[in-house]
Design a protein that fits this description.
It is built from nine helices and 15 strands. The protein has 322 residues and is of the alpha/beta class. The N and C termini lie far apart (65 Å). The structure holds adenosine-5'-diphosphate (ADP), aspartic acid and magnesium ion.
Length: 322
């Protein structure tokens, strides 16, 4: 019997009708005799809404509480799917991250999975249950809930597939594969049949949302073939694996990023400033794409657009702090 991991993103489960389509897909694969593990995101734009609601409450949000709040979106989707599958006559059980044995580090909102204790998952699979697991969340050593960063359900799915030595991991979303560019922005973009892990890691870290970048790293490390497909049609998707040995262009990506530059003659020799900048980035857990130092400039390019408060904080740190 093969174990297959299926992950459905927010747009795939946005309402009851879509949840039913997802349930039908799951039961079809289950009826073929596979052991099925399903990973779900929060429904639709739930996570965005929760973040907005937290911001309305406070400009300085407590990180532990925020993770507890954000993880609630996935708890809602897994239990709804559990209710639906059981009502269709299938034995299904939903598990939150902690129930599924997903242990992470302490990095709130950007936690890294340290290990997965698969005991409970395997026990439920051996009882022929369809196991539904909340994506995007785990617990740290204090048994507090953590989240893995935006889009992190992909990482949950591939990490679970690796821990279970699954045959492969399907990532279902609103697009039927990985394209030569974002198909929602470039009408002429073409679907790719196959990609190497390395190519996909580059595409993801340049900001194509289609797969969370850490998920692809795990896929490569444990050699789990990743198949991206549409939830809403049966067209062939894109397979991400080790194969591939050509040198053609696979994708063109536009990403809006922030860049902060610190200018001053001879800055290349001012190690205290260079160190201050690096410490600032580390202490504020900012994700860098690039760090450059030249004769009279330090430039940092960040992975995402960062708020203006970061600019005033770094200004304070470098120009006003003794
Ligand atoms: P989910 O909510 O299912 O996790 P995401 O929104 O995170 O789905 O990812 C799917 C989106 O990724 C698509 O709607 C598409 O706009 C975007 N995307 C960006 N670049 C690409 C690409 N090269 N190929 C396919 N989709 C892409
Ligand atoms: N719900 C989370 C988010 O919106 C995780 C995910 O969708 O993968 O970022
Ligand atoms: Mg996603």
């Amino acid at each position: 019997m093969d174990t297959i991991v299926l992950k459905f993103g927010g747009s795939s489960i946005a309402d009851n009708e879509k949840l039913q389509l997802v349930a039908n897909r799951i039961t079809k694969l289950y009826n073929k005799g596979n052991k099925i593990v399903v990973i779900l995101s929060a429904q639709g734009k739930t996570t965005d809404k929760l973040i907005e609601e937290a911001k309305e409450l406070s400009p300085t949000i407590n990180n532990r509480e925020l993770d507890s709040l954000l993880s609630s979106g996935e708890q809602v989707s897994i239990s709804k799917l559990g209710i639906l599958l059981n009502s269709m006559g299938y034995q299904a059980i939903s598990l939150n991250g902690w129930q599924a044995g997903i242990y992470t580090d302490n990095n709130n909102q950007n936690a890294i999975i340290k290990r997965i204790d698969t005991t409970r998952i395997i026990q439920e699979l051996n009882n022929d249950k369809i196991v539904i697991i909340a994506g995007f969340q785990g617990i740290n050593e204090n048994m507090d809930i953590t989240t893995l960063g935006r889009g992190g359900s992909d990482t949950t799915a591939i990490a679970i597939a690796a821990a279970l030595k699954a045959k492969n991991c399907y990532i279902f979303s609103d697009v039927d594969g990985v394209y030569t560019s974002d198909p929602n922005r470039v009408a002429e973009a073409k679907k790719l049949a196959a990609l190497s892990y390395e190519e996909m890691m580059e595409i993801s870290s340049e900001g194509a949302k289609v797969l969370h970048n850490r998920s692809v790293e795990i896929g490569e490390k444990f050699k789990i073939p990743i198949i991206t497909k549409s939830t809403f049609n049966n067209k062939a998707g894109t397979i991400i694996s080790d194969i591939i040995e050509e040198n053609t262009v696979k994708s063109i990506i536009k990403k809006d990023v922030s860049r902060i530059s610190i200018v001053g003659n001879g800055i290349i020799r001012n190690f205290s400033i260079i160190q201050k900048v690096l410490h600032f980035i580390e202490n504020n857990k900012l994700d860098m794409l690039n760090f450059e130092v030249s004769e009279s400039k330090i430039s940092v390019t960040f992975k995402d657009i960062i708020p203006d408060i970061v600019l005033s904080n770094i200004h304070e740190k470098i120009l006003n702090e003794k």
